[in-house]
UniProtKB/TrEMBL annotation:
Protein name per Swiss-Prot or TrEMBL: Uncharacterized protein
SUPFAM superfamilies per the UniProt record, alphabetical: Triosephosphate isomerase (TIM) (SSF51351)
Keywords for this protein: Isomerase
The species this protein was found in: Limosilactobacillus antri DSM 16041
GO BP of this protein: gluconeogenesis; glycolytic process
Record Gene3D superfamilies: Aldolase class I
Highest rank taxon of the organism: Bacteria
Pfam families, alphabetized: TIM (PF00121)
Molecular function GO terms recorded: triose-phosphate isomerase activity
Amino acid sequence: MLTKRNVIPDATRSTATDLRVQRLLTSEPVLISNCRILTLIDHPSREINQQLRAALQSSQQPVLKFDEGDLRLTPVDFASLLSRRLTNALTGVSRAAVSRLVIVYSPRWSGECRLPADAQRIRIAHRQIRDLLRIVYDQETADQVQIIYGGFVFEEELADVLCDSNVDGVLINK
């Protein structure tokens, strides 16, 4: 079920798409419907900010897809890139609006050569995303934002990834 690369569309799309998310090992996947995917790494932050604001005013579910690119960044480098991209994308977005947001961390490297520490790297990245939201907004708002892992994951790693309180689920293929 989860041995194939999980796929989230790469392009910023104005059309809606649905995402299937595994939240717990023992539960059925949950469907997040009517999503508008906004990819942070591929588009200028100002453009993403405008599209995010438009999605928040519409009936679509805004989803920010974050990818660190082709490199496996160290936690310090990831935090620096994340801070620049995410804070620019969220400029002027209210607490109430950001609480509707879904963030998908979907690193390109996850489909390549896997390393033993990748499950830990995934958990650290999710914690860094949540921490940045806490700094920019507050703890309550940060806790309301869904942060989902959208990269490749082996079934034997799934429990390790999902047990982290900062990981709200893992995307799965249909």
